[in-house]
Amino acid sequence: MAEYQLSEFQKKKILHVFNVFYDSNLDGVIEWADFELALQKICGIHKWEVGSEKHRNAKATFEVIWEGLRKFADENQDDKVTQEEWLKMWTECVRAAENGTDLPDWQKRYMNFMFDVIDTSGDDLIDVKEYTTVFTSYGASKSNCEAAFEKFSDGGRTQINRSAFETLWKEYFVSKDVNANGNYLFSQRFF
Ligand SMILES: [Ca+2]
Ligand SMILES: [Ca+2]
Ligand SMILES: [Ca+2]
Fold first, then answer.
1. Residue 2 falls inside a structural domain
2. How many domains does the chain have?
3. How far apart are CA 134 and CA 130, in angstroms?
4. Nearest bound ligand to CA 37?
5. CA of 47: how far to CAs of 39, 52, 64, 104, in Å?
């Protein structure tokens, strides 16, 4: 059987997440230092003070995510995850997902954490304002965010609760279909 390969479209989506959400200092590799920067950014958005419970929880979550990422992706164990290592790990995750295996726990931790980060009001729903606030802080334009939200919420007809978010999240990473709503979850158009 031929080795499983991601499509170019899937690779683009998966590298977008590497570049925009994980490699915070933009030096081309993911390290713990990137998580420290992300922690500052996210705690800044929410005004979570250093030492507060929210801040401690966010840091603990990032530690779990980094441990998971290292374990699954850092093949040569140099405490850096390169784009190549990242794509290799995702090839395995997508292949497993297509065979019905759920995403690894640390990725679900990240997904749930992002949901909580975006849901600033804490009502377990993400609205367009909350979405735009967070994604513009990651460099997306306001109009891109609004267009993306419009698309993945089906023009506002789908409420973005945790389970809808999970469906879109998985679709983003796994789907080869350029028309899938999940493709828009990270505020970017890829075609
Ligand atoms: Ca980096
Ligand atoms: Ca490495
Ligand atoms: Ca909300």
1. no
2. 1
3. 7
4. 1
5. 11, 10, 22, 30
Q: How far does Cα 97 stand from its chain's mean position?
A: 16
Ligand 3 centre to CA of 6 (Å) is: 34
Ligand nearest to the CA of 28: 1
Q: Is residue 119 part of a domain?
A: yes
pLDDT block averages, 10 residues each, the chain of length 191: 85 95 96 96 92 94 95 97 97 93 92 94 96 93 95 96 97 94 87 56
Q: Which two tokens stand for residue 22?
A: 């994980």
The SS3 assignment for 110 reads helix
Examine residue 191 and state whether it is found in any structural domain, yes or no: no
CATH code for position 94 = 1.10.238.10
Amino acid at 22: Y
Range of the domain at 99: 8-184
Class of residue 154 by CB neighbours under 10 A (exposed 0-12, middle 13-18, buried 19+): exposed
Please report whether residue 189 resides in a domain: no
Q: Nearest 5°: phi and psi at 84? A: -65, -45
Q: How far is the CA of 20 from the centre of ligand 3 (A)?
A: 23
State in Å: Cα 174 to ligand 1 middle.
24
Q: Which ligand is nearest to the CA of 23?
A: 1
pTM (2 d.p.): 0.92
